[in-house]
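TASK: fixed-backbone design
INPUT:
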């Protein structure tokens, strides 16, 4: 299924043209810090998005990195949509698929960030995207991509905004790790055995940490965290795969930052044999006092055996 999905998504990249109906539209632009939005609204209601939408991040060197690209129909996402890692210097594709009346529907593919370059060494030279601006205000934006280095993390189908049927999950090296039936809630194939662990993350820890890194990159656009005291947050994975905050203390801004990260990571932990034999603690520890050239906090995954009574 992987190569079929890849061909489908790449073909969508070059045919993402939705024809708006006869309603009169006007273009609108917004700016929030270094994030720009370009989209159409109804002339009769300038709060209603209708037609093409583009958002992008512009860095200090005036390089533009696509965030999202697609179409709206009366404020609801419709047709083909593409999101990108806008804080990744390569601006890799993050996800691609279709919406129907604001809900994900049909084939979707997700991709890994590019970890081969840094923002400080690329200056836009590693970008795989290019925005093509329209010559007239009434015309659409276009974009070009160079997908040769894209690495798929997962692919499958949505039905009414929920994952449906068979999904495939890959490591960052391209190895098929898991095949999971989201309709039957059943692990079909497991090519990454973890003999010391009954609890696994679909796609492996490559995929888990990719979401973590992406959230960190996105939040770098916001005001830096000022950590004022020793701080830590501990989450556990519940029997249903959901995240549970079990312990926290310290700086509130740090704890809010961590909570946003956890909310961005899909809750896709499963038990290999359906038996709860261990729990995972996800521990975030702030660096306090601040140390130059050291990350403001660290993350650690700790596997703890469950004592059977």
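OUTPUT:
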């Amino acid at each position: 299924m992987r190569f079929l999905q890849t061909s489908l998504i790449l073909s969508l990249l070059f045919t993402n043209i939705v024809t708006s109906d006869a309603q009169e539209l006007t273009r609108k632009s917004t700016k929030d810090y270094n994030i720009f939005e370009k989209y159409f609204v109804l002339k009769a209601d300038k709060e209603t998005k209708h037609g093409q939408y583009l958002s992008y991040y512009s860095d200090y060197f005036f390089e533009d990195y696509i965030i999202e690209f697609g179409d709206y129909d009366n404020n609801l996402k419709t047709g083909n949509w593409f999101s990108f890692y806008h804080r990744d210097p390569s601006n890799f594709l993050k996800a691609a698929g279709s919406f129907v009346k604001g809900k994900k529907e049909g084939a979707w593919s997700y991709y890994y960030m590019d970890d081969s370059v840094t923002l400080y060494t690329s200056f836009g030279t590693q970008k795989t995207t290019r925005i093509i601006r329209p010559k007239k205000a009434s015309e659409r934006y276009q974009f070009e991509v160079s997908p040769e280095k894209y690495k798929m993390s997962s692919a499958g189908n949505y039905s009414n905004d929920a994952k449906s049927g068979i999904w495939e999950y890959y490591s960052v090296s391209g190895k098929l790790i898991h095949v999971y039936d989201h309709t039957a809630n059943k692990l079909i194939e497991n090519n990454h055995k973890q003999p010391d662990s009954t609890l696994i993350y679909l796609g492996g820890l490559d995929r888990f940490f990719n979401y973590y890194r992406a959230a960190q990159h996105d939040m770098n656009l916001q005001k830096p965290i000022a950590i004022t005291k020793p701080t830590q947050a501990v989450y556990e994975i519940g029997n249903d795969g959901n995240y549970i905050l079990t312990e926290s203390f310290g700086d509130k801004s740090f704890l809010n930052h961590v909570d946003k990260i956890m909310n961005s990571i899909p809750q896709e932990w499963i038990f290999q044999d359906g038996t709860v034999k261990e729990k995972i603690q996800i521990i975030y520890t702030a660096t306090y006092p601040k140390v130059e050239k050291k990350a403001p906090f660290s993350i650690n995954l700790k596997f703890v055996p469950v004592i059977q009574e």
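COMMENT: The CA atoms of residues 79 and 141 lie 16 Å apart.
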